[in-house]
Amino acid sequence: MFERFTKGARAAVVMAQEEARALRHDHVGTEHVLLGILAIDTGPGARALGTLGIGFEPARSYVAGLGAAHDDALDADALATVGIDLAEVKRAAEESFGPGALDRPHKRFQSGHIPFDPTAKKALELAVREVIQHQGKEINDGYLLLGIVRGEPNPATATLRALGAEPGAVREAVERELRNQAA
Amino acid sequence: MDNGVQLAEAAGSKDPATGLRAVRALRELAERLEALQVAAARDQGWSWEAIAVLLGVSRQAVHKKHAKGRKDR
């Protein structure tokens, strides 16, 4: 599947894995592919995001926040949304079972390879479909982005929305850049 | 700040990111409390059967999940 990828698109996918590892996430998702595209910053996809004012740093902080949901750490904020005071639960547990009673029994170590999650795989497949539809020759980061947008809703489109870019606007911006590149 | 109102608003949030994150956090918390309580019950001489009944799962399930690493498995 990767043989038709441009250098930039390949680099973005590799960078997606690096980002997932750096953020200590247990999967590579569409959100990391988005970060990869922004980090490599070459090609119509990155340019389209640039025209929409989407920068790497704000995207990364948003994705890091998403990661809290994937982290095994006890999520006090999330528990608070359903009325549970984690500090109080901890206090009660430690009163009965001693200090650190609620701490994770054993830390899972981060293995070398972080797998792509199904949504990210789907987005890569959709990128291939986009390139065929647009009669493109190779899969650049613009098609990766179109694949992500077509696969919505996913964490990447949630990130884009949070930064003020609706998926439809992203698609238009990418298609404009693809036309510019062809011209 | 009225914390009760804030909580009610968050719990009623239609944003799946908020709701799903809460579910995950609840599950993780439940897992840890379960590990803690099962270990304590075993330390006090409870049978796997008795623990399973109270947890509402099969004896096999609770044994498979918690016996590992215990000397009294």
Provide a descriptive summary of the structure in words.
The complex is a heterodimer of chains A (183) and B (73). Chain A has 183 residues and is mostly helical. Chain A folds into two domains: 2-65 and 116-182, Orthogonal Bundle (Double Clp-N motif); 68-97, no CATH class. Chain A has ten helices and no strands. The longest helix of chain A is centred in the N-terminal third of the chain and has 16 residues, at 7-22. The two termini of chain A are 27 Å apart. Mean pLDDT of chain A is 88; it is low at 106-110. Chain B has 73 residues and is mainly alpha-helical. In chain B, 73% of the residues lie in helices and 0% in strands. Chain B has four helices and no strands. Chain B has helices at 3-11, 16-43, 48-55, 59-66. The longest helix of chain B is centred in the middle third of the chain and has 28 residues, at 16-43.
Helical region count of chain A? 10
Strand content of chain B: under 5%
Q: For the record, give the distance between the C-alpha atoms at the N and C termini of chain B, rounded to a whole number.
A: 50 Å
- CATH level 3 topology of the largest domain in chain A: Double Clp-N motif
Distance between the termini of chain A: 27 Å
Biggest sheet features of chain B: none
Structural class of chain A: mainly alpha
- Range of helix content of chain B: over 70%
CATH class of the largest domain in chain A: Mainly Alpha
How many DSSP H or I helices of chain B?
4
Q: Strand share of the residues of chain A?
A: under 5%
Shape of chain A: elongated
Based on CA atoms alone, the radius of gyration of chain B comes out at 17 Å
What does the main sheet of chain A amount to?
A: none
Compute the number of strand runs of chain B.
Answer: 0
- Indicate the percent of residues in helices of chain A: 55-70%
Task: Supply the CATH superfamily name of the largest domain in chain A.
Answer: Clp, N-terminal domain
The total count of strands of chain A amounts to 0
Low-pLDDT runs of 5+ residues of chain A are: 106-110
Mean pLDDT of chain B: 83
Task: Name the chain pair whose interface involves the most residues.
Answer: A-B, 23 and 20 residues
